[in-house]
Amino acid sequence: MASDRDILPAWAKPTHYTVSLHDLEFGGKFTYKGTVTINTKITKDDGFSDLVLNSHQLKVHSAELKAGDAAKSAKDISYDEKRQRVTLDFGEKIDYSGEATLEIKFEGTINNIMAGFYRSKYKPKGEVPASVAKDDEFHYMFSTQFESCDARRAFPCFDEPNLKATFDVELEVPKDQIALSNMPEKEIKPSKRDGFHTVVFERSPVMSTYLLAWAIGDFEYVEAFTERKYNGKNIPVRVYTTRGLKEQGRFALDNCHKIVDYFSEVFQIDYPLPKVDLLAVHEFSHGAMENWGLITYRTTAVLFDPATSADSYRNRVAYVVAHELAHQWFGNLVTMDWWSELWLNEGFATWVGWLAIDHLYPDWNVWGQFVTDSTQQAFALDALRTSHPIEVPVYDGLEVDQIFDHISYLKGSSVIRMLSAHLGEKVFLQGVADYLKAHQYSNATTNDLWSALSKASGQDVNSFMDFWVRKIGFPVVTVAEEPGQIGLRQQRFLLSGDVKPEENSTTWWIPLGLHTGSSASSATLHKTTALTQKEETIRNVDDGFYQINKNLTGFYRTNYPAERLKKLGEARAQLTVEDKIGLIGDAYANAVAGYGSTAGLLALVERFSDESDYLVWSQILTNIGNVRSVLAGSDDVSEALRKYHLKLITPAVEKVGWDFKDGESFLTGQLRASLILSAGVVGHQATVDESLKRFDSYLGGDKSAIHPSLRRAIFATAIRQRGAPALKAIQQEYLSTTSIDGKEICLQAFGRVQTPELAQEVMSFVFSDKVAMQDKHSSTIALANNSKVRPEVWHFIRDNWDTKVHPTLSGNSVVLERFLRFGLNKFADEKIADDIAAFFKSKDTRGYDKGLEVIDDTIRSYAKYAKRDEAIVREWLGANGYLS
């Protein structure tokens, strides 16, 4: 057994499972019974007396092993709850190696914590069959979520990613409900239970346990077919929903069949299953899950109604559909060997998901979006001491949930984008196709991918990518100017700005993307392509114009001299959207870390008041919002920064207007929604007045008064301006909305309350049974982003930890960790960091300890920044007329 991980004994390996579930209890207890038969290959020469499998919160009734001619029953069945294992002790030594069959009878519960085999509550539209599970208020659908290690909650199994096997699934269900699994239905068998039958599914290909899935409910679907033929047939593609919602699956459906064909061509391997089902699940811990052939989604990530949905969800649905389809090859067909290489699944699916959306929607400027969303968020987490390498040691499956984070997904995909830009997209995708062909239906490592890419490109990819994947953090490249040349120095970037020598030992391969010329419009690529040492001087650089990291394809920060930053700001009209985002994002990060100054950032951003691109504004508003957030503790600076923000956005919000015009681009609509929200919250009077006027008309019954994409902006402004009455009205909207995104939008708007009392009321509402577990972080994050009431989030968590917060969220560590990480990471006060650390010191924090480290590191870095830059910012604001 490898000592760096806790895995099952290697001498027993599954080759095939038959999973049969029956006696499902639909009336309140939600129990079920099951039999799992596992064909097992045994390779222990000196005999054995017990077998160990994964099992969690199941009761195993009996186990029988058929080995050769003998059949042995387990004499003792014992559980190791902490390691989520069951040991089947046969009471005597069994001398056998070869193929054996293990049959286990067990029972379990269909839980309500979005892990394993679980139930989701919903309010149905239309007539519902009597057999559908329900209580006084809700109906229920059943589905599964097995990644990372929750197949063991549904049936006893060998629950590790490299223990692949084939699966047969049989489900006993009411005749008037639909059962789904990874594969198409094979046959229906009669059942002894009245009104029930057993649905048997075709055998799956070889796959990991975490990709197995099934679902039972009152489902209906919309259907399309791929345009390409697979084995002579067009594959059926379906979006399943509970009754009454299927038409909102059309947009996802239309994307899905096109993306299946696109990936089949790009990866040079046909989609390997005979169907693709997408299922909308009413309660879901993540955004979606890539179960092979039965992909599950939270409703807002797969359903879209052009008449009632905010347009931002169009983008979300398209991307999440593409991301999960990418996994059908990258993750499902070829799976990481162990959880430490999770990034192989997630980083790649993120990058290639955006690649597919760029292919379908070239006018969305997908890579500009990638740079402002994915890359900047990855920078934020990776700039902390408490970050982790992309490839991170994972001792056991229980540790893995915490690395489903911005490093695995967003740094992983940013580094892949960097490599693809360096090798060229065509060469890169050829290497990926070769990798998939070489390892299909098995497991692979990062080195396997590097080998395939090295072969395709003729370059030693491992030599320059190894540190990006196996070392923590990323560099900042500091530029010094001399006539005709620049000096470059790389060091590790830390948000706290205090890198110690031992933390600065990595020398990264840094693709420079250096462009230079007499002006921005005439600049061309410099012959020096990469920085491969700590310091280097680059000659023949034109003082007229130069720029490093063109289009922000490299995963690093650039720190220019103050005068050069100013010149780049002056040349902004000649820069790409990605360049502008990089320039602003780098200036902000360097200011926080102390490599640059906030005064320089404010002066740079001031020039962008004439900007018309949504993605650039998104970066500006995020960064200026963060500066305002960190310096909120000082009243005069806070008010002056509000005036700065107001002056900055006034020309843009007045120009973009309120009306969505026919034929207008997606990005223009997004810009309008973003600027109206920002202007309303910052107190732009005309925006506030118009928002309140429309809000009143909306409450008066004129639903057309608020465009679906402006609900968030107008609700937020109303709550900020009117307090309790508006909060009550929007709580009512939350309870009555039929729009698929309506609840999320209301929850985000709640966060704009202005008094501690209302913030506590919001938190109490969030922890009532009116808000689903999957959504409890939405209002909490919005409150955390609001400096007026931010402390109330911490007070609520601290005062209600034992009675509400922990009991409600602890069943699912993914949900609890996300709630804490994003609810508590916005403070800039060391005293609060001390309080949080002291509070959790005596708690068992397994499953969210990494999140707590990130919170502590972030707060202390911000506190240091606030202390260092407050006086400088005050001086700049005074000199520029913002201080009253």
Automatic annotation (TrEMBL):
GO terms for biological process: peptide catabolic process; proteolysis. The active site is at E324. The record marks Y409 as: Transition state stabilizer. Residues 13-211 form the Aminopeptidase N-like N-terminal domain. The keyword Metal-binding applies. The keyword Aminoacyl-tRNA synthetase does not apply. It comes from the Eukaryota. Residues 251-468 form the Peptidase M1 membrane alanine aminopeptidase domain. Zn(2+) binds at H323, H327, E346. InterPro entries: Aminopeptidase_N-like_N, Aminopeptidase_N-like_N_sf, ERAP1-like_C_dom, M1_APN-typ, Peptidase_M1, Peptidase_M1_aminopeptidases, Peptidase_M1_dom, Peptidase_M4/M1_CTD_sf. Binds 1 zinc ion per subunit. Its EC number is 3.4.11.-. GO terms for cellular component: cytoplasm; membrane. GO terms for molecular function: metalloaminopeptidase activity; peptide binding; zinc ion binding. Keywords: Aminopeptidase, Hydrolase, Metal-binding, Metalloprotease, Protease, Zinc. Its cofactor is Zn(2+). Residues 545-860 form the ERAP1-like C-terminal domain. Belongs to the peptidase M1 family. This is Aminopeptidase. It comes from Ophiobolus disseminans. The lineage of its organism: Eukaryota, Fungi, Dikarya, Ascomycota, Pezizomycotina.
